[in-house]
Amino acid sequence: MEQKHADILTEITDADSLAKLEALGNDKANEFIADAVALCKPSKVIVCNDDPADIAMIRQASIDNCEETPLAMEGHTLHFDGPSDQARDKKVTKYLVPEGEHLDEKLNCTERQGGLAELREIFDGAMAGRTMYVRFFCLGPVDSQFSISCLQLTDSAYVCHSEDMLYRAGYEQFKRISPDGEFFRYLHTAGRMENNVSVDVDKRRIYMDHTQNTVYSTNTQYAGNTVGLKKLSLRLAIRKADREGWLAEHMFIMGVNGPNDRVTYIAGAFPSACGKTSTAMLPGETIVGDDLAYFKAIDGKAIAVNVESGIFGIIADVNAEDDPVIFDVLTSPGEVIFGNVLVKDGVPAWMGMGVDLPADGVNYQGKWTSDMTDVNPSHKNARYTVRINSLANADVKADAPEGVELGAIVYGGRDSDISVPVQQSYDWAHGIMIGASLESETTAATLGAEGVRTFNPMSNMDFLSMPLSQYVGNNLDFATKLTDQPMIFGVNYFLKKDGKFLNGKLDKGIWVKWMELRIHGEVDAIAAPTGLIPRHEDLAKLFKQYRDFDYTEQMYVDQFTIRIPENLAKLDRIGEIYANTPDTPEALTDAMDAQRKRLTDLQAAKGDYVSPLDL
Ligand code: SPV
Ligand code: MN
Residues 161, 30: one domain? Predict the structure, then answer.
């Protein structure tokens, strides 16, 4: 270790921790750690490697310092974030942009030098009296061409514990990178705390310095703002993928079981709370990952890996009937962190869990009783953290360094009046158009108003770290590297008629079976202006086979009627956004123009609302 780094670290770091840094022999890592120590002034530095003893020590530290509290069931713990720290804070999540560089009007940016100066002031002495944990993780499976090494510094044992559950241990992987090799780095402090929660909300900052692959996060504990490897790394990964010609996506990956023991992998992008996690965990199928995926073109095939090894999922509405697989994990002994739920006598409870909630308990804002009608018992964005391998249907290839070959990509939005429940794109560019046009209603996963229709291309808008047109262009170009292109589908679980949902929560299980058959050319489809839609007879067969349910022609007609005025209005909305976006790829505009022509031609021939039986 260079003397200047050793001078800073030796006094407050024990021999075991120093030896772990020496064994890594990475001067760039040492420099980042020494700078952060000099700035944040912790009283102690603990360096962990991949040893299970270190990982167990971290979990215990989170309990000892009261960031987590053990619950009644073995392995379960509870974590609360502060009342105004319950979701990702977009307002203070910014890119530090060097003078002269430009990202995109839609991205929240601030000038880099000024932003760094602001951060230095907030971080100065922020860890006084506390321990700084030095952690190494790996994005993607270890020892894979997808692996990205990461260095996390934080004074929160809860953040480390979450990362131990959500990511692969990465100390040994870190040894594999060359001394000047690339790695992502994160510096986090919970800031000033009272009752174990961050209190200086006005000084909350999440700043990304992409020039140094570094993210700073402070005065927050909510995992979406603090767990460096989750959405903070996604922003860095999108830029790395752009440099290297692959894709970093906000997608689940799952295996769909087809006939004769065939497993077909699909990846899906859905904005928060649009059914993504429950699709990834569909009973009877297998889960690779529920949130982040990297894609590379390898030998002409689209290969994907799960970036993570765990799930940080929304707990609201998880119940035995709709989400049996995860419900089982949440109600059985084993390692689970519950975040921002209601607790009574050491037992967690949450809205929509399918049983009566206790009349009182403790939640993220303190004591709660059922007469407090203005406070939900559990927060709508309350969460659970689990390891994927605790799910009964974890896919056997969940950690495979070689990844899985994708048969399809699915884009799912949330609209009550536009898109049919499932349709296949005509080609790659049309599919990317479906993804690039995703809209959803806002949900409790971010601060701000709920229920507003929001443009969210590929469900990645919050995480784009480059101009939108460049990101969409990369998605379009990806196909040129492939000889076996995945199909692309669009889904919408939220279509309504007369104010009522047209689909049950488990209907998505039928849509994935239909996609699986399409991928293998085993079922026909009908050409609608918006895409290729299923035939009634095929869906009826699948509903019967898998659900013993009589799927009537009337249900089919209601669900698959092409709503032309609403589709045209959406094209207008999205068209205007891209018309005002510099350098929109021509292939995207062409795909929108072609869709508009198909819609207006059909409208001229058959009116505004066209039954699938009339196509
Ligand atoms: C999401 O909001 O998309 C999540 C949770 O997956 S968070 O970690 O907050 O990003
Ligand atoms: Mn997500």
Answer: yes
Catalytic residues: 274
CA distances from 317 to 84, 214, 238, 378, 507 (A): 22, 36, 31, 11, 16
Do residue 224 and residue 353 come from a single domain? no
Range of the domain at 489: 248-309+398-614
Mean pLDDT of the chain: 96
Q: How many domains does the chain have?
A: 3
Whichever domain contains 104, its CATH number is: 3.40.449.10
Residue 117's CB: how many other CB atoms inside 10 A?
Answer: 10
Which residue carries 């607790």 as its tokens?
343
Query: Is this structure's pTM higher than 0.90?
Result: yes
Task: Kindly report the protein residue whose alpha carbon is nearest to atom 6 of ligand 1.
Answer: 291
Ligand 1 atom, smallest distance to 87 CA: 9
**Are 301 and 309 spatial neighbours (Cβ–Cβ below 8 Å)?**
no
Nearest-angstrom CA–CA distance, 85 and 142: 32
Coil, helix or strand at residue 497: strand
Residue 543 CB–ligand 1 contact under 6 Å: no
pLDDT in tens, 555-601: 999 999 999 999 999 999 999 999 999 999 999 999 999 999 999 99
Atom of ligand 1 nearest to the CA of 271: 3
Report the CATH number that the domain containing residue 329 is assigned in CATH. Answer: 2.170.8.10
599: Cα within 13 Å, side-chain hemisphere: 24
Structural tokens at position 597: 């022509």
Cβ-count burial of 416 within 10 angstroms (0-12 exposed, 13-18 middle, 19+ buried)? middle
Q: Which helix (H) or strand (E) holds 57?
A: helix 52-64
- Residue 383, ligand 1, Cβ within 6 A: no
The kind and range of the H/E element at 325 are: helix 324-330
